[in-house]
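Quarterly update from the structural biology core.
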Amino acid sequence: MRTLVLLGIVGFLAQLVDGSLGMAYGVTSTTLLLLIGTNPAAASATVHLAEIGTTLASGVSHWRLGNVDWTVVRRIALPGAVGAFAGATFLSRLSTELAKPVMAALLLSLGVYILVRFTAWGTPRDNLGKPLRRRFLAPLGLIGGFVDATGGGGWGPVGTPALLASGRIEPRKVIGSIDTSEFIVALAASLGFLLGLGTAGVDLAWAAVLLVGGVLAAPLAAWIVRHFPPRVLGSAVGGLIVLTNTRTILDSGWVPTAPVVHTLLYALVWTAWAAAVAWSVRAHLADRRVQRAAEPATAEEPPPVRAAD
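Predicted structure, tokenized:
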């Protein structure tokens, strides 16, 4: 019962992050599952099984709001499914001793990216351009799907920034298209884990609790995205992912170091994390001051005086 409660909290927190940033559901939930001692392959399999439900609901919502570019979905989803299936099969065949540090290294890389991405550049800006081409979307989907399955997350962190950086699709359709195509990716990854691990590798109750936690968090996530600065939240979550996966790598003995080195590395991560959050808060406050200064005067001008007939 205690494990189910913890998993419900994991799903709740992961959805808060994903609903506020448009990415990092898999990275956050897999990191927290590893933190409570879950097997790496089982953690990724459980998260992707839960994501079949969450991404389906998200995709339908984006479709109804007109936030989906179906050309992008068609061109990125199939390569993403191929990459996810290959990644799931690869991770299923690794030993637990090797899989844990490998997954932690991937999650650490994604955590560093999220930390730097939101600290340095903040939230995406609207920048439209030419249509996206298949020769760009196909490799992006293949890489994103493989990273997503082997790292327990990464479809959003890999796909969303690349589409935004291309400058050829508006941000709302970037998020909607990535979320919608992720349903196919999660389905393919789950199939790969099912073939690689069998039914014994996935706990359906865990996946169900993760799903329920995510559904409960969705309304609160919508409130957070309106009232809490995404830039600050991204820096905070990125630092958490970096810290937890640094600990996993050091504890695994994959990189043999003296205890004093562990202490210095933890101190470095904590210092960098605190500095990043402080910088994001400062940048957010500066942006608010600029926005307020640019707002037009609220005082209404008096109506014009009509000339006498």
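The chain has eleven helices and no strands.
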